[in-house]
Write a structure and sequence with these properties.
Elements (H helix, E strand, L loop, with lengths): L1 E5 L3 H9 L7 E5 L8 H10 L3 E5 L6 H20 L7 E4 L3 H9 L18 H14 L7 E3 L7 E5 L9 H5 L5 E3 L5 E5 L8 H5 L5 E8 L2 H5 L1 E6 L2 E3 L6 E4 H11 L8 H4 L5 H20 L7
Parallel strand pairs: 1-2, 1-3, 3-4
Antiparallel strand pairs: 5-9, 6-9, 7-8, 8-10, 11-12
Length: about 300
């Protein structure tokens, strides 16, 4: 069957005019607005057994809606192509009634396969994942991953390890939990399944060490695995030996502070101390300076 999605206004009128002439395998589906049925709906329809999906646009449809539909179509088609399916089984058209049936009849169609058995869910990303997993399972031939168009909400984070200082600014800003701090070690981890490619990590990173690239990794285990992007041994305090930062952070700060009026001599070494030892060292120096100032005024001095 071919599912024909249309809106409840002009689209409904066109389909009603065609009703008596529509072939039995074309099933009209009315939605409030064409944009309310996204790639989660389209891919699920294919997974459940539809041979194609047609989106019937109207010339007066809001351009913002049409643009979003086309963006999602581009992503969904790329995901299908990566599994060996013809991307043309998803079609947006503004054909008039006289040509619509011919357009649908000339479309590429998916061969009948075992339908998916997952239940409908409210969470769109999960529905997309389940639909793609089923289509991948019954795919004629597929690749491990596929590159997606810019703006797609799936992909990976690329890290320049030479620049990264493991400051974890990206972790604090990641809204999806894709970037994670290591448990007891200075380490940056990544879960690709969670990444929505929002780019906040790129804009937050003070070292310009992060880039994102849209793609879809089909293997469920790889996509959900927690992989290490960068890891360093901790830097130990030069006074007490307690680990408190990473070597790259300390070296970076030391390099930037060299020559600064407030970080001359021993003051520069405090950067290599933990917070407790730094305070003790500062007050120890102040006490020594005070003692030197007092001693000349003592009797017999």
């Amino acid at each position: 069957a071919v599912l024909l999605f249309h809106d409840g206004e002009a689209g409904r009128d066109m389909v009603a005019a065609l009703a008596s002439g529509l072939p039995e395998h074309i099933l009209p589906v009315e939605v409030e607005e064409l944009g309310s049925a996204g790639m989660d709906t389209w891919l699920s329809a294919l997974a459940y057994g539809a041979s194609a999906v047609v989106l019937l646009g109207m010339p007066r449809s809001p351009q913002s809606v049409v643009a979003e539909v086309h963006a999602q179509l581009e992503t969904a088609r790329a995901v299908l192509a990566g599994m060996g399916y013809p991307p043309e089984v998803l079609l947006y058209t503004e054909q008039q009634a006289s040509d619509l049936i011919n357009t649908i009849s000339d479309m590429a169609m998916l061969a009948a396969t075992k339908p998916a058995g997952f239940a409908g869910l409210d969470e769109k990303r999960t529905v997309i994942r389940l639909a793609v997993e089923h289509l991948f399972e019954v795919a004629p031939h597929s690749r491990p991953l596929v590159t997606l168009p810019a703006g797609a909400p799936f992909g990976e984070v690329l890290l320049d390890q030479a620049r990264c200082t493991l400051c974890m600014a990206c972790v604090s800003q990641c809204p999806a939990g894709a970037l994670l701090a290591g448990d007891d070690m200075p380490r940056l981890d990544f879960i690709e399944a969670n990444c929505v490619q929002c780019g906040l990590c790129c804009r937050t990173c003070p070292e310009d060490a992060i880039a994102i690239t849209p793609r879809y990794l089909y293997d469920y285990r790889q996509r959900n695995s927690r992989r290490v992007l960068h890891e360093e041994a901790p830097f130990d305090c030069i006074r007490c030996g307690k680990p408190f930062a990473t070597r790259s952070v300390i070296e970076n700060i030391s390099r930037k502070m060299q020559g600064h009026a407030m970080f001359k001599g021993a003051a520069l070494e405090r950067i290599r101390m933990c917070e407790d030892c730094r305070v003790q060292d500062i007050y120890g120096d102040e006490a020594s300076d005070a003692q030197i100032a007092i001693e000349p005024s003592l009797p017999g001095g």
